[in-house]
Write a structure and sequence with these properties.
The protein has 268 residues and is mainly β. The chain has one domain (4-265). It contains three helices and 22 strands. The strands form six sheets. Strands 2, 5, 9, 10, 13, 14, 15, 16, 17, 21 and 22 form an eleven-stranded mixed β-sheet that branches. The chain has a three-stranded antiparallel β-sheet with strand order 6-7-8, with no helix packed on it. The radius of gyration is 19 Å and the shape is elongated.
Length: 268
């Protein structure tokens, strides 16, 4: 089998996510909940600075650890005060379902341990910057930061299999870009898309499973051009492996048609 030069591993862009609220696989609201930022109280628990509030009970976490925020703020040139953020909750990645770019994050890879960060892969979102339209080469251009990331059940598939999704809490700094924060809060800019650095990809076809580290791909993937074809009843996609999430952007046209803004918090 011949091999084709490809840039398979490297920066991969995620799906287009729209603002709506999903419960057990059903859209129950297209109007995300708005919570005023001052309702998130800053307290100290077990030696850590955290933000708590009634609105957090609707999320996968009951508190936000923010003791690291001043250090991230210095790197990203954003506010060190949680009260300056408009925070939205979205599904950023859906496990085992290819996105519009025909990339797939498996549940096993999302839960694989990343020794360098001391947590599973899906947690690599935490502390990463929020950008606009994947303009992510300069940390100081960040518009905010990702506060939390959790793996949550999204729906139940045929046969009773649970479909899992990575839900993140991303905050946009009003003091850095007031207009963007306002657009996100008022649902006038509802698209979100992740960015990940990928060290290895694998062909999805069960009889191939060729692993690429950035120099060659198989004849099926064809450097990306072959993705989307159906061969012997199997869809050709790239399974992403050994990845870390590096950002999540506010975008006009993201890749995952499911990236959903569940709730948005901030001062009106």
């Amino acid at each position: 089998m011949s091999r084709i030069v490809s840039a398979g591993p490297g920066l991969h862009i995620g799906d287009y996510m729209l603002a709506q609220t999903i419960d057990r696989g059903k859209v129950i609201s297209r109007d995300p909940k708005i919570i005023e930022g001052h309702r998130l109280e800053k307290v100290r628990i077990a030696g850590k600075d955290v933000a708590v509030g009634a609105g957090l009970k609707s999320c996968a976490c009951d508190r936000l650890e923010i003791d690291w925020l001043p250090f991230a703020a210095a790197q990203y040139h954003i506010s060190a005060d949680i009260e300056n953020y408009v925070i939205c909750e979205i599904f950023s990645v859906v496990a085992d379902i290819p996105n519009r770019n025909l990339d797939c994050f498996s549940f096993d890879e999302l839960t694989s341990w990343r020794t360098m960060i001391g947590r599973p892969a899906y947690k690599s979102f935490v502390g990463k910057p929020c950008h606009t339209d994947h303009d992510n080469q300069d940390d100081t251009k960040a518009k905010g930061v990702i506060f939390d990331s959790n793996l949550v059940p999204l729906a139940t598939a045929r046969g009773g299999r649970t479909i899992w999704a990575v839900k993140i809490l991303k905050g946009f700094d009003r003091s850095k870009d007031e207009r963007l924060a306002r657009l996100v809060q008022q649902r006038n800019r509802i698209g979100h898309s992740m960015g990940a650095l990928v060290e290895q990809t694998e062909c999805s076809l069960p009889w191939c499973r060729f692993r690429s580290e950035g120099t060659t791909t198989c004849d099926d993937v064809q450097g990306g051009a072959g993705k989307g074809r159906i061969i012997r009843k199997h869809l050709v996609v790239e399974q992403l492996q050994a990845f870390n999430f590096i950002e999540d952007s506010s975008v006009e046209d993201p890749a995952n048609v499911l990236a959903l803004t569940d709730f948005i918090w901030g001062v009106e």
